[in-house]
């Protein structure tokens, strides 16, 4: 117990120091934290860290998603809803297909189910990583809005693909009709659960007397209640947190006064900073453990496979984003769109802003523990 507490404190201290150093060197924080964790992991005497994926999903994911939903403008989310849906659902599924077919042909012994599993792991970009990298660059506000909206929804799509592929590997069968039906059902019912739980919190905040501290404390409980309720009903906990967070965010001026909003924003910013920093440094710290767990493949083969799959994911995202831009120009004269002439700079930035993060880490860890 004492060692675990010491490790947590040491990680938080390391995150703070590395963030300050990264800002001084003007290196994007996520990249610097991953590299710093990798360097630290090779220091003699540093304990090898193996993360329980359930802890990643349960402890890290709900508050990070909730905070992102809370500060997402519903007006902007609705304005860019078409491109967000295409990127969050269409691109995730298309990427999973592409990765499945290429990995099956490239890697000996790889099946389609394993390919879809890999696709589900690496398909969702992380808005935290993208925003951290892009904040030092002047980019159009619409690009940030699209990336943030995409990140709110694509995690659910990728996790559904991941879970169905994992179930197919365990059962030895994969039925497309059942997978498609399950995909939409867990998503829709997950949204319903999130809105239902958010409605309860709305009533409590609106009609029951509470102090500022109690209101802020309940905002930290809300994402966990949404996530756990949805997972208990075997629907998407991610979509529950996202939909519930958007609902409460839209009504925050009705249920919270300015004191709660200001103090809550400061507390949430600190907590999210710590969680994000821990996730990225843990990625680097655990890399040696992952490398040591490679059985049957040489490091050269693994690096080659990783390069090919990485290039495939980058090219797939760029192609889909540019095709969407061209398609928007074509249909812009027929149906109303947010921006009829998106140009080429914005789509290129959106295409390149596809860094992976917490969901991919947790999914990969889940596979490692089950294997």
Automatic annotation (TrEMBL):
Pfam family, one: Na_H_Exchanger
UniProtKB keywords: Cell membrane, Ion transport, Membrane, Sodium, Sodium transport, Transmembrane, Transmembrane helix, Transport
Entry keyword Membrane: yes
Domain Cation/H+ exchanger transmembrane: 15-365
Gene3D superfamilies: 6.10.140.1330
Membrane-crossing residue ranges in chain numbering: 55-72, 84-107, 155-176, 182-203, 233-250, 262-283, 303-331
Compartments where located: Cell membrane
InterPro entries: Cation/H_exchanger_CPA1, Cation/H_exchanger_TM
Main location: membrane
Cell membrane is among the record's keywords: yes
Membrane topology type: Multi-pass membrane protein
Protein name (record): Cation:proton antiporter
